[in-house]
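Ticket reopened. Same input as before:
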Amino acid sequence: MAKVIATISLKGGVGKTTITAGLAEFMSAEFGQRVLLIDLDSQINLTTMMISEERWFTLNDHGDTLAALFADGIHGENHFCLESAVQRGVSPVKRVTTVDLLPSSLDLIEIQEELSVLRATDPGRALTILRDAVKPVIDYYDYVLIDCPPNIGPVTLNGLAMADAYIIPTIPDHLSTYGIPQIQKRVRRFGDEIGRTIVELGVVISKFKSNSRVHGSTVKRLRRDPTIQNVLPNYINEANSVAASAEFTPYGTLKGKYGNQGQFDQFRGLTSDVLTEAQSKL
Ligand SMILES: Nc1ncnc2c1ncn2[C@@H]1O[C@H](COP(=O)(O)OP(=O)(O)OP(=O)(O)O)[C@@H](O)[C@H]1O
Ligand SMILES: [Mg+2]
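Engineering reply: fixed in the latest deploy. New output:
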């Protein structure tokens, strides 16, 4: 059975997409896992990181994105084809060979509004469009990683409706950590609505600055906070090479892409943390 993990936060720009992409690539190249990435964000960042903007344009023209899937679900039509939408063997890193992607689209912005209307009139259908579509292929994968937009709108809820667990990336400063209790509460409440628990795997410290007093004290505070289940032991430091990973540039290895001055080890360590948590809690 595939384990499904959503990456979620109410705060934008905290590294959700960077971490989701890194986890998929390291799960594949370092831990031999088959991974499906699902990009639920209309900003299409994960999609362009994995397949380039050029290839996305073509897919979008052909209706091979999640916007087409949701449009079908809303209008009761049947244009979306899972087989042609799933992009196989994505990532610009040669060593990464077992990551597939369901691409997003800028058109999801409008879909989001229509989906909100459907959620009011037919909540069951509005929440299960994604889960039902992915069902035929899901057990081919060891992990499904879902990158969510920085909100808990109906598109994100489609991700949560099929998620076993979630991680919360945060920059360790006051404004970024502020929304963590809200996220936990909203996910818990949604779990109650659908009748099962969506497990909190942990908070992921992102863009950590080892020379920052605020970052140091915020991490300590998070670790002491009894309402936070778990701060994963490995952090991702702020680094130029990690920022550059957002560009679709060919690399031979993960060390080449993420950098070999601690960055590779941090991503590998974080991936190991997530796999350990998932194996023990799911
Ligand atoms: N460890 C890091 N070091 C340096 N830059 C980073 C790091 N992680 C992410 N970034 C950069 O910070 C910006 C935001 O990161 P990212 O897009 O991953 O965040 P996000 O939470 O997905 O944002 P959004 O909420 O808009 O989806 C990007 O420009 C990214 O390249
Ligand atoms: Mg993002």
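The radius of gyration is 18 Å. The chain has 14 helices and six strands. Please confirm and we'll close it.
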